[in-house]
Amino acid sequence: QVLLQESGPGLVKPSETLSLTCTVSGASISGSTYHWGWIRQPPGKGLEWIATVYYSGDTFYSPSLESRVTISVDTSNNQFSLKLYSVTAADTAVYYCARLLLRGRVYFDYWGQGTLVTVSS
Amino acid sequence: EIVLTQSPGTLSLSPGERATLSCRASQSVTSSYLAWYQQKPGRAPRLLIYGASNRATGIPDRFSGGGSGTDFTLTISRLESEDFAVYYCQHYGSSPLFGPGTKVDIK
User: Fold this and answer.
1) CA diameter of chain B
2) Is residue A49 within 8 angstroms of chain B, CB to CB?
3) Per residue in A58-95, pLDDT tens?
4) Is the pLDDT of residue A103 over 90?
5) Peptide bond connecting A9 to the previous residue in cis, omega within 30 degrees of 0
6) Which residues, other chains included, contact B41 with Cβ-Cβ below 8 Å and sequence gap of 6+?
7) Using an 8 Å Cβ cutoff, are A34 and A52 in contact?
8) Which of A15, A41, B99, B107 could tie B6 with a disulfide, CB 3.0–4.6 Å?
Protein backbone atom coordinates (compact mmCIF):
# COMPACT_ATOMS: atom_id res chain seq x y z
CA GLN A 1 0.00 0.00 0.00
CA VAL A 2 1.31 3.42 -0.95
CA LEU A 3 1.46 5.87 1.95
CA LEU A 4 2.54 9.49 1.99
CA GLN A 5 3.19 11.40 5.20
CA GLU A 6 3.82 15.11 5.51
CA SER A 7 6.04 16.49 8.24
CA GLY A 8 7.19 19.93 9.27
CA PRO A 9 6.39 22.84 11.56
CA GLY A 10 2.76 23.74 12.06
CA LEU A 11 3.52 27.37 12.77
CA VAL A 12 5.71 29.70 10.71
CA LYS A 13 6.32 33.39 11.27
CA PRO A 14 5.56 35.93 8.54
CA SER A 15 8.48 36.56 6.15
CA GLU A 16 10.11 33.26 7.13
CA THR A 17 10.40 30.00 5.17
CA LEU A 18 7.89 27.17 5.29
CA SER A 19 9.60 23.80 4.99
CA LEU A 20 7.78 20.51 4.59
CA THR A 21 8.87 16.97 3.81
CA CYS A 22 6.83 14.11 2.41
CA THR A 23 7.97 10.58 3.23
CA VAL A 24 6.77 7.92 0.82
CA SER A 25 6.38 4.26 1.73
CA GLY A 26 5.10 1.35 -0.32
CA ALA A 27 6.45 2.80 -3.55
CA SER A 28 9.79 3.96 -4.86
CA ILE A 29 10.07 7.64 -5.53
CA SER A 30 12.62 6.69 -8.18
CA GLY A 31 10.03 4.99 -10.36
CA SER A 32 9.70 6.44 -13.83
CA THR A 33 5.90 6.44 -13.99
CA TYR A 34 5.12 9.02 -11.35
CA HIS A 35 5.76 12.59 -10.38
CA TRP A 36 5.44 13.80 -6.80
CA GLY A 37 3.68 16.98 -5.82
CA TRP A 38 2.39 19.45 -3.28
CA ILE A 39 -1.13 20.83 -3.19
CA ARG A 40 -2.52 23.24 -0.59
CA GLN A 41 -5.96 24.20 0.66
CA PRO A 42 -6.58 27.39 2.64
CA PRO A 43 -9.20 26.99 5.37
CA GLY A 44 -12.66 26.74 3.83
CA LYS A 45 -11.36 27.07 0.28
CA GLY A 46 -10.46 24.90 -2.69
CA LEU A 47 -7.36 23.04 -3.82
CA GLU A 48 -4.33 24.78 -5.29
CA TRP A 49 -1.47 22.94 -6.97
CA ILE A 50 1.93 24.24 -5.87
CA ALA A 51 4.65 22.16 -7.51
CA THR A 52 5.70 18.71 -8.72
CA VAL A 53 9.05 16.96 -9.02
CA TYR A 54 10.28 13.95 -10.94
CA TYR A 55 12.83 11.51 -9.51
CA SER A 56 15.41 12.90 -11.93
CA GLY A 57 15.07 16.28 -10.25
CA ASP A 58 12.97 17.91 -12.98
CA THR A 59 10.67 20.43 -11.34
CA PHE A 60 7.41 22.11 -12.28
CA TYR A 61 5.92 25.10 -10.46
CA SER A 62 2.65 26.97 -10.29
CA PRO A 63 3.22 30.29 -12.08
CA SER A 64 1.60 32.15 -9.19
CA LEU A 65 4.06 30.73 -6.66
CA GLU A 66 7.13 30.01 -8.75
CA SER A 67 9.14 32.96 -7.46
CA ARG A 68 8.82 31.77 -3.85
CA VAL A 69 8.90 27.97 -4.09
CA THR A 70 11.47 25.22 -4.32
CA ILE A 71 10.62 21.51 -4.56
CA SER A 72 13.29 18.84 -4.33
CA VAL A 73 13.60 15.08 -4.19
CA ASP A 74 15.75 12.81 -1.99
CA THR A 75 15.71 9.39 -3.59
CA SER A 76 18.00 7.86 -0.97
CA ASN A 77 15.40 8.50 1.74
CA ASN A 78 12.35 8.16 -0.52
CA GLN A 79 11.29 11.71 0.31
CA PHE A 80 10.54 14.96 -1.40
CA SER A 81 10.38 18.42 0.10
CA LEU A 82 8.84 21.84 -0.30
CA LYS A 83 10.20 25.23 0.65
CA LEU A 84 8.00 28.31 0.44
CA TYR A 85 9.84 31.55 1.10
CA SER A 86 8.68 34.88 2.49
CA VAL A 87 5.37 33.54 3.76
CA THR A 88 2.40 35.69 4.69
CA ALA A 89 -0.93 34.93 6.34
CA ALA A 90 -2.28 34.08 2.89
CA ASP A 91 -0.06 30.99 2.89
CA THR A 92 -1.93 29.53 5.86
CA ALA A 93 -3.35 26.27 4.57
CA VAL A 94 -3.46 22.52 4.82
CA TYR A 95 -0.56 21.27 2.72
CA TYR A 96 -0.92 17.89 1.02
CA CYS A 97 1.70 15.81 -0.71
CA ALA A 98 0.50 13.49 -3.45
CA ARG A 99 1.60 11.14 -6.20
CA LEU A 100 0.86 12.22 -9.77
CA LEU A 101 0.54 9.78 -12.63
CA LEU A 102 1.66 11.58 -15.76
CA ARG A 103 1.53 8.98 -18.48
CA GLY A 104 -1.44 8.62 -20.82
CA ARG A 105 -3.80 9.55 -18.03
CA VAL A 106 -3.04 12.27 -15.50
CA TYR A 107 -4.27 12.22 -11.92
CA PHE A 108 -3.21 12.32 -8.28
CA ASP A 109 -3.85 8.80 -7.03
CA TYR A 110 -2.38 8.80 -3.52
CA TRP A 111 -2.44 11.67 -1.05
CA GLY A 112 -0.97 12.30 2.36
CA GLN A 113 -3.33 13.13 5.20
CA GLY A 114 -2.33 16.78 5.05
CA THR A 115 -0.68 19.08 7.53
CA LEU A 116 -1.98 22.46 8.65
CA VAL A 117 0.56 25.24 8.48
CA THR A 118 -0.38 28.51 10.11
CA VAL A 119 1.53 31.68 9.34
CA SER A 120 1.40 33.94 12.35
CA SER A 121 3.71 35.89 14.61
CA GLU B 1 -5.02 29.69 -19.77
CA ILE B 2 -7.76 27.17 -19.10
CA VAL B 3 -10.30 27.90 -16.38
CA LEU B 4 -12.45 25.18 -14.83
CA THR B 5 -15.94 26.08 -13.62
CA GLN B 6 -18.04 23.73 -11.52
CA SER B 7 -21.77 23.95 -11.06
CA PRO B 8 -23.78 24.12 -9.02
CA GLY B 9 -21.78 25.48 -6.13
CA THR B 10 -23.96 23.54 -3.72
CA LEU B 11 -26.33 20.70 -4.45
CA SER B 12 -28.87 19.84 -1.75
CA LEU B 13 -30.29 16.37 -2.17
CA SER B 14 -31.72 13.51 -0.16
CA PRO B 15 -30.24 10.03 0.20
CA GLY B 16 -31.32 7.85 -2.70
CA GLU B 17 -31.55 10.75 -5.13
CA ARG B 18 -29.41 11.18 -8.23
CA ALA B 19 -26.68 13.82 -8.25
CA THR B 20 -25.35 15.37 -11.43
CA LEU B 21 -22.31 17.62 -11.10
CA SER B 22 -20.89 19.71 -13.92
CA CYS B 23 -17.33 20.70 -14.75
CA ARG B 24 -16.88 23.10 -17.64
CA ALA B 25 -13.56 24.11 -19.18
CA SER B 26 -13.02 27.49 -20.82
CA GLN B 27 -11.60 25.71 -23.87
CA SER B 28 -11.60 22.17 -25.17
CA VAL B 29 -9.47 19.84 -23.04
CA THR B 30 -8.16 16.32 -23.34
CA SER B 31 -10.52 13.83 -21.69
CA SER B 32 -7.60 11.64 -20.70
CA TYR B 33 -6.43 14.40 -18.42
CA LEU B 34 -9.74 15.02 -16.59
CA ALA B 35 -10.21 13.61 -13.10
CA TRP B 36 -12.71 13.90 -10.26
CA TYR B 37 -12.02 13.81 -6.51
CA GLN B 38 -14.18 13.54 -3.41
CA GLN B 39 -13.22 15.36 -0.23
CA LYS B 40 -14.83 14.96 3.16
CA PRO B 41 -14.27 17.42 6.03
CA GLY B 42 -10.83 17.08 7.57
CA ARG B 43 -9.76 14.48 5.01
CA ALA B 44 -7.52 14.44 1.99
CA PRO B 45 -9.15 14.32 -1.45
CA ARG B 46 -9.80 10.85 -2.85
CA LEU B 47 -9.55 10.00 -6.53
CA LEU B 48 -12.92 8.91 -7.93
CA ILE B 49 -12.68 9.15 -11.71
CA TYR B 50 -9.75 9.47 -14.11
CA GLY B 51 -9.67 9.87 -17.85
CA ALA B 52 -13.13 11.49 -17.55
CA SER B 53 -14.97 8.18 -17.24
CA ASN B 54 -12.82 5.54 -15.54
CA ARG B 55 -13.55 4.67 -11.93
CA ALA B 56 -10.53 4.47 -9.66
CA THR B 57 -9.84 1.31 -7.71
CA GLY B 58 -12.45 0.60 -5.07
CA ILE B 59 -14.90 3.27 -6.20
CA PRO B 60 -18.52 2.04 -6.20
CA ASP B 61 -20.31 1.80 -9.53
CA ARG B 62 -22.90 4.37 -8.47
CA PHE B 63 -20.23 6.91 -9.41
CA SER B 64 -19.83 7.56 -13.11
CA GLY B 65 -18.12 10.19 -15.19
CA GLY B 66 -18.67 11.37 -18.72
CA GLY B 67 -18.27 14.16 -21.18
CA SER B 68 -15.76 15.51 -23.63
CA GLY B 69 -14.45 18.74 -25.06
CA THR B 70 -15.47 21.46 -22.61
CA ASP B 71 -18.27 19.76 -20.67
CA PHE B 72 -17.85 16.94 -18.18
CA THR B 73 -20.18 15.44 -15.62
CA LEU B 74 -19.91 13.36 -12.49
CA THR B 75 -23.06 11.41 -11.69
CA ILE B 76 -23.90 9.66 -8.45
CA SER B 77 -26.82 7.42 -9.32
CA ARG B 78 -28.24 7.00 -5.81
CA LEU B 79 -26.77 9.07 -3.03
CA GLU B 80 -25.71 7.26 0.09
CA SER B 81 -24.97 8.96 3.39
CA GLU B 82 -21.21 8.74 2.86
CA ASP B 83 -21.43 10.55 -0.48
CA PHE B 84 -22.23 13.94 1.04
CA ALA B 85 -18.97 15.76 0.47
CA VAL B 86 -17.23 18.25 -1.79
CA TYR B 87 -16.32 17.17 -5.31
CA TYR B 88 -13.51 18.66 -7.40
CA CYS B 89 -12.71 18.23 -11.04
CA GLN B 90 -9.09 18.53 -12.12
CA HIS B 91 -7.42 18.90 -15.46
CA TYR B 92 -3.80 18.72 -16.52
CA GLY B 93 -2.85 21.06 -19.34
CA SER B 94 0.61 22.39 -18.87
CA SER B 95 0.10 21.89 -15.14
CA PRO B 96 -2.53 20.52 -12.74
CA LEU B 97 -5.60 22.72 -12.28
CA PHE B 98 -8.51 22.14 -9.91
CA GLY B 99 -12.03 23.42 -10.26
CA PRO B 100 -13.62 25.34 -7.36
CA GLY B 101 -15.68 22.38 -6.19
CA THR B 102 -19.32 21.40 -5.74
CA LYS B 103 -20.63 20.69 -2.27
CA VAL B 104 -23.24 17.97 -2.08
CA ASP B 105 -25.14 18.34 1.15
CA ILE B 106 -28.16 16.72 2.75
CA LYS B 107 -31.50 18.34 1.98
Assistant:
1) 39
2) yes
3) 999 999 999 999 999 999 999 999 999 999 999 999 99
4) no
5) no
6) none
7) no
8) B99
Searching chain A, which residue's CA lies closest to the CA of residue B48?
Answer: A109
| Contact by Cβ (8 Å): A59, A71 | yes
Instruction: Give the Å distances, CA to CA, from A76 to A24, A29, B22.
Output: 11, 9, 43
How distant is the Cα of B36 from the closest Cα of chain A, in angstroms?
A: 9
In sequence order, what are the residues at sequence separation of 6 or more whose Cβ sits closer than 8 angstroms to the Cβ of residue A3? A24, A25, A26, A110
Mean of pLDDT values over B61-84 = 97
Contact B72, B22 (CB under 8 A): yes
One-letter amino acid identity for B40? K
- Tell me, what's the pLDDT at A93? 98
- Report phi then psi at B68, rounded to 5: -165, 170
For CA atoms A105, A106, A107, A112, the dihedral sign is positive
Strands (E), B1-107: 4-7, 10-13, 19-25, 34-39, 46-50, 54-55, 63-68, 71-76, 86-92, 96-98, 102-106
For residue A101, list chain B residues with Cβ-Cβ distance below 8 A: 50
